[in-house]
Amino acid sequence: GWEGVKFPAGTDSPAVLAGHPSLHRHRERAGKEGQVLHRSKRGWVWNQFFVIEEYTGPDPVLVGRLHSDVDSGKGRCKYILSGEGAGTIFVIDDKTGNIHATKTLDREEQAQYTLTAQAVDRDTNKPLEPPSEFIVKVQDINDNPPEFLHRPYFARVPEMSNVGTSVMQVTATDADDPTYGNSARLVYSILQGQPYFSVESQTGIIRTALPNMDREARQEYDVVIQAKDMGGHMGGLSGTTEVKITLTDVNDNPPKFPQSVYTMSVLEDKVSGEEVGRVKAKDPDQGENGLVSYRLTEGDGLGVFELTTDSQTREAVIKLKKMVDYETKRTYMLRIEGSNPHVDPRFTAWGPYRDEATVKIMVEDADEPPVFVAPSYNFEVEENAPAGTQVGRVHAKDTDVANNPVRYMIPRYTDVEQFFSVNSEDGMITTTRPLDREAQAWHNISVAAAEIGGHHQDTKVRVNIRVKDVNDNAPEFATNNEILMCEAITPGKVIETVSAVDKDEMAHRQHFTFSLAPEIAHNHNFSLKDNRDSTASVHVLRKGFSRLTQDVYFLPVEISDNGLPSLSSTQTLTVRVCSCDSRDTILSCNVEPYVLPAGLSTGALIAILACIVILLAIVVLFVALRRQKKEPLILFEEEDIRENIITYDDEGGGEEDTEAFDIATLQNPDGANSFLPRKDMKPELQGALRPGPGSTRGHSVDVDDFIKSRIAEADSDPTAPPYDSIQIYGYEGRDSVAGSLSSLESVTTESDLDYDYLQSWGPRFKRLADLYGTKDYPMNDTDDGEDS
């Protein structure tokens, strides 16, 4: 350590030790010539003190010594130390001024300490020197290894990068003093990752060291970088970190088909749009660099097949564009090209980035349904032709190589009424019944053809059958055959022109003739003139028609057509005589009486039914009201007042209540005539005691009569309170087949009953036989026969 010293007065030597100036140096200079320069007297003079960090010796470290010029060495001067760490880290000998460090110091925790020294009189503690500050610096040693800021590091670099391409920079720090020695001077080196990568020793920049590193061969690299202090020399401390480097993809690989020739097959019965097969060109690149687009370049199947790309699997999908036929063409050839749509211009010299493959498609024979030689058939048949008449023949053939025979049938849903049948072998269609053109002029049916022994596949063809007309319908009047004629009509006047229609199909060649029936051909009232244009005129021959004499005339008219053979029919014209005015306007005819229906109209029927329903409702209501009026009378007649129970929230005394009624009265019915007043409640007004109805004295008194008499007395007693008192009587009732088992009567009648027969009733009556089997049985149980 350094020791503080005192320079003598007048000394010009500067107080500088180890490059540090003294703490106090004062000069006075004259500002004018002739003045004498004076130097002030210096007291404390010492250097900065240094102490090495991390000292682990057994004794405290001597930091330095303080000394004042007022210290004569006699022990009067006392040194005092204050400031950072004084008394704990740093201690001073108050006699000698020696400063020691008592603890191990760490520069990284605190690099220097500022302390204050003072010399005082030991006896009086008066300052001998003014206090002065000094600094104790902790001298660094290499005790901290380098540390990397982040660990691990992740970096990415494109594959095929040139040598020296920067990957990333790693940085380490050292807590030691960078201004002192080489403790914080770091050097970087690579411990793992050669020969692929290198690191700059001073900057820590990692660069590629090999050309043409291929991601498809190896994608990830684990590189270990070391940072060492002391400039990398021996004895320096070091730290490492791991750097994970990933090669990113570039388009450096062209697509490639695994096979040069692909063979596929398709059944001839496949429809357009169905998939035939798939091919895929492999590209080891990723993302857009690995995309492959496909197209058909040549081949005889360009018009038959089409190509699409599956967006999920990136496969080329070959589909049918048109149906194929095994019997026509059995083999197709296609040329497919796969190429990268995104090409990196840096690697175009490595190309071309495309590949081609050949696809052979074989058409397989399928069990196809037969094919009709015509797309549809049109036949004609005359109406009324007998059953079995041939209509026409349909023909289908099997186009498969096997050329199996064909069977025919008519689907029933196309010929519901089954007018036709078809020969299953030769396809001849015949009628099953005569046809009526007027009912149905056309029949549209289908005929199905299927191979015999095939897979039940059939094909259908449309057959249109026209029914040809024959003259099988006689003509008839075209309109209503009733004529209205005035009474005062002039003779020779035409009252009607009639025409006819025929259901047969005669078209423009159709012609009708008219004539009166032979039986009235010479009548004196009317005549018929054929106009030779398929119409006829009705003329009046006389006058003087009267409604009162005859109001209706009937004219049978024969109508004939020109068919082959000619058909005719007799139609009746009805001529009705009417009254007319002077302008021949019809005023009244006898039409209404004949037109009006004999029955009732719908409205009238509804009105009658409504009236009937209303009458029924009134009757039912009346009956219901009468029943409601009679019910109270019936109930009153059948009502028994004893069945009405009224609750007054009062409970009788039960068996224990001997005050309400004297049970001895029941045991002795002979004394029932004597009146006993009620004791359960004392009435406020004492009424005259009325004797009850007289009872027959003797042992023949009926308890039932006794109870009824007591009820009658209670009901007629005006002094009785308005509530019921339930009494318990040991009375079973009368008309019992078994008789009474009560012991009450046995006491009063004193009759000897023989119960020995109970012994023969079996073990179930053993207890009863023991009780009543002897004559000397006790009779103190008076409650055995009571009913509650």
Number of H/I helices:
6
Radius of gyration: 72 Å
The best one-word shape is elongated
The separation of the N and C termini measures 129 Å
| Major sheet details | 5 strands, mixed
Transmembrane segments: 604-625
InterPro entries: Cadherin, Cadherin-like_dom, Cadherin-like_sf, Cadherin_CS, Cadherin_Y-type_LIR, Catenin-bd_sf
Membrane topology: Single-pass type I membrane protein
Domain Cadherin: 68-148, 149-257, 258-372, 373-477, 477-595
Can you put this structure into words, describing what you see?
Cadherins are calcium-dependent cell adhesion proteins. Residues 68-148, 149-257, 258-372, 373-477, 477-595 form the Cadherin domain. The structure is a single chain. Strands 37, 39, 42, 43 and 44 form a five-stranded mixed β-sheet that branches. The chain has a four-stranded mixed β-sheet with strand order 1-5-8-7, with no helix packed on it. Strands 4-10-9-6 form a four-stranded mixed β-sheet, with no helix packed on it. A hairpin with a 6-residue loop joins strand 42 and strand 43. It is 9% helix and 31% strand. It contains six helices and 44 strands.
Features:
elongated, repeat, disordered C terminus, 44 strands, mainly beta, five-stranded mixed sheet, 788 residues, Catenin-bd_sf
Short description:
By secondary structure, the protein is mainly beta.
List the SSEs and their pairings:
Blueprint: E1 2-3, E2 27-28, E3 38-39, E4 49-52, E5 61-65, E6 77-83, E7 90-92, E8 98-101, E9 112-121, E10 132-139, E11 147-148, E12 153-158, E13 166-169, E14 172-173, E15 187-192, E16 197-199, E17 205-208, E18 220-228, E19 238-248, E20 261-267, E21 275-279, E22 293-298, E23 305-309, E24 316-320, E25 331-339, E26 354-364, E27 371-372, E28 376-382, E29 390-393, E30 396-397, E31 406-409, E32 420-422, E33 428-431, E34 442-451, E35 458-468, E36 476-477, E37 482-486, E38 494-501, E39 512-516, E40 526-530, E41 535-540, E42 552-561, E43 568-580, E44 586-589, H1 592-595, H2 602-638, H3 663-667, H4 703-716, H5 743-749, H6 766-772
Parallel strand pairs: 1-5, 4-10, 12-19, 20-26, 28-35, 37-43
Antiparallel strand pairs: 2-3, 5-8, 6-9, 7-8, 9-10, 11-14, 13-17, 15-18, 16-17, 18-19, 21-24, 22-25, 23-24, 25-26, 27-30, 29-33, 31-34, 32-33, 34-35, 36-38, 38-41, 39-42, 40-41, 42-43, 43-44
